[in-house]
Amino acid sequence: MENQSESLATTGTSGEADAPGLVGIVARMRLMVGEQALGVLVVDNGRVKLVPDGPPVDVTAVCKSRDVLIRLLRGQLNPVLMALQALGRLHGDRERGARILYGLRAGSPFVQTPFDGKDA
Amino acid sequence: MSLNTVSILDGNSFVVSDRRGDIDASPVDTQGLFLDDTRFLSRWILTVNGVRPSVLSVDEQEYFQVQFFEAVTTSTIYVDSHLSVARKRAVGKGFHEEILLENHDKEPIDLDVKLDAACDFADLFEVKDKLQKKGQLYTKTTNDRLTLGYKREGFIRETYITASQKADIAEDGLHFQVHLPPRTSWTVSLDVQASARATGDEPMRSKAGVDAWVNAAPRLVSSWEPLQRIYRRSLVDMAALRFRTGLTPGALPAAGLPWFMAVFGRDSLIASFQAIPFAPELAASTLRTLALFQGRVEDPFRDEEPGKILHELRLGEMTAFEERPHSPYYGAADSTMLFLIVLEEYVRWTGDRALAQELEREARAAVSWIDRYGDRDHDGFVEYKRGNDQTGLDNQCWKDSWDSIAFADGTIAPLPRATCELQGYVYDAKLRTARLAREVWNDPTWATQLETQALELKQRFNREFWLPERNFFALALDGQKRKVDSLTSNIGHLLWSGIADDEKAASCVKHLMSDALFSGWGIRTMASSEGSYNPIGYHVGTVWPHDNSFIAWGLRQSGYRAEAARISRAMLEAADLFGGRLPEAFGGYPRSDTHYPVEYPTACSPQAWATGAPLLLIRTLLGLESDGVHLIVDPAIPEPLGRIELLDIPGCWGRMDAFGRARAAD
């Protein structure tokens, strides 16, 4: 059984990678599963990296499960479906958060990242 | 909407009831409280001592508020009642209702007052298609609240009903025992709240808020009094249709009541364009929202492609579980070009270059979509064919009903279809984007490329769409590149975009003003001479106000002042006969047959682009244009409309006034 509370930055990738759909966006998005903060997605104009949780953040994505969060990071979950099925929600700068989630659908560097030792 | 129903709305929240105020949804009556494309109340029936009060009158006070006056009678023939009922209702995220009972008698009376309540939580698509639910309905009662609920996995929707007076709360409603002494009254307030997406706690709309919206728009004075009423009606209806996504700032126009209270690419963009001289902020919100949802990937289920602007975003259960593709659905071949057109129009009108800077990336992606995906077979024209064969749209132009693209003999044209107005929009979009590239994005090389492409398209279009034997442009090229030879209103859009050569445009104008297309009230979607013509066919003979407003605008831009004025006048006279509110569409019967335009049975009203039509017609009559610095005023007003003044027009010049009066030559 996967560890819901383990930081994504330690189980996933901590290096910078290209995310072509996030060109033009600069933001820090906190990633949470329920009450647990699992890291921050740092977006810097088309480059992204996962870092351990810490302020400041512009927007927070709260997901129902770790699996939902990983699907979001991989750009494999439609953000509208996420909201309608109550799989996750955004707090803070929701417009920027939505731009990030949509941008990840246009090519996410996490598609091949073996989070928790699992392949995509 | 049925004449027997009463609707109040606030964005995508609306209540449709009968004229008593009761809600009794059935397969034939689309009544209920709706929010986010879901019905949150399907039954709401007031009885007093087991009797449903009889309606005396309905006072539709504001678009979000209504009052019903009723009496409790026991006979089918009215005899003076001593018990009156007033129901005052205002919609927000749910509704608030005050019920007042008055005993006018000299004797006391004991009353058993009951409100039946129930909900089917139907998705709007289910309401239309009568589908069965897949989740579980439930009810919960406490001492002070009735909860109606529905659950399907994580999709949970609930309706909470509370009362200001002590009630017996049961699963089927609320029950009050009332003793009314002589000449006294009793009041109860009821709150029906819908739980849906989180968009922040916005206060319910107020009369002051509507007045502020209307007052922020230019003030219109006209010697033809109905125009002032039509103008105010348009502004108020546009206020009613404002819709907040909760993601982007500001509000954009939803498409129309009742089926289209949602973000639509085409409808929101067209309504925004129409409203730019009056409420330019709508365009800014629309552009930002559509940019956020711009296509990122190739997804045939949603007809999504990178750079494409959405067609429709829905929030109901069937969308949530991918039984419908509207999350969002991208099946519109024109919305991407319209996005570019509205962006340039907005920036040139307001001088808001910052928005153009902000949306440069999306604009470039939109142009890429036109060339890479819009022109599917690389023949130099944009054409469409749905990727989703189950629930996608066959027709992805504005005439999106199944039978709208037909040959003159009535044969439906095979797919893919390249309709003529799409090519005009591409031409216009590329020229306008070139202006932004040169003036805002500092990219003259790209600007020149776009201008060259537009010119080549114009030449190709005038060569390959022209029907020399009929002297107008083909409605479309079909899947076998045959010219679809029906005479339709689509050729009017070619004037607006400027793609038609002058001589060919002149010939099209003659057709537009002929008896076959111009009914006397407006230009029909399809000429009465064509095989598919039906005066009450949705896109094959009815008259659409928004269509006419753009044709009039195109005529005006092409120098046909008298023709533009004639259509504008006819359409505004129709609006007057519709009580100031133009419907989505009306019948294409000749004006010589009737003293009034014939209603189309299922037309949406209010509908955003019909609401915006009078605004664009006023702009047409006054000849309002922006050159990016100054407001240009060049009126052409027909005699009966007399004098028009539009004061405090917002734009890059600050606020300016425009005056025009009828002249013999116009």
Outline of this structure?
The complex is a heterodimer of chains A (120) and B (666). Chain A has 120 residues and is an alpha+beta fold.
Please characterize this protein's 3D structure.
The complex is a heterodimer of chains A (120) and B (666). Chain A is α+β, with helices and mostly antiparallel strands and 120 residues long. Chain A contains 4 helices and 6 strands, in the order H-E-E-E-E-E-H-H-E-H. A 6-stranded mixed beta sheet of chain A has the order 1-4-3-2-5-6. Chain B is α+β, with helices and mostly antiparallel strands and 666 residues long. In chain B, strand 1 and strand 2 form a beta hairpin. The longest helix of chain B is centred in the C-terminal third of the chain and has 21 residues. Chain B is globular, with a radius of gyration of 26 Å. The two termini of chain B are 37 Å apart. In chain B, 54% of the residues are buried. Chains A and B meet through helix 3 and helix 4 of A and helix 6 of B.
End-to-end C-alpha gap of chain A: 17 Å
Specify the structural class of chain A: alpha+beta
User: Helical stretch count of chain A?
Assistant: 4
Quick one: overall form of chain A?
globular
Question: Main sheet of chain B, how many strands, which sense, barrel?
Answer: 8 strands, antiparallel
Quantity of strands of chain A, as a count: 6
Measured by residues with Cβ under 8 Å of the partner chain's Cβ, the largest interface is: A-B, 21 and 25 residues
pLDDT under 50 segments of chain B (min length 5)? none
Radius of gyration of chain B: 26 Å
Count of individual beta strands of chain B: 31
- Biggest beta-sheet profile of chain A: 6 strands, mixed
Strand composition percent of chain A: 25-35%
Q: Which strand order spans the largest sheet of chain B, edge to edge or round the barrel?
A: 7-8-9-10-17-14-13-12
Average pLDDT, all residues of chain A:
89
Q: Which structural class should the secondary elements of chain B be placed in?
A: alpha+beta
Oligomer: heterodimer
* Gyration radius of chain A, rounded: 13 Å
Q: Order the strands across the largest sheet of chain A as they lie in space.
A: 1-4-3-2-5-6
Q: Work out the helicity level of chain B.
A: 25-40%
Helical percentage of chain A:
25-40%
Listing every helix as H and every strand as E from the N terminus to the C terminus, the arrangement of chain A reads HEEEEEHHEH
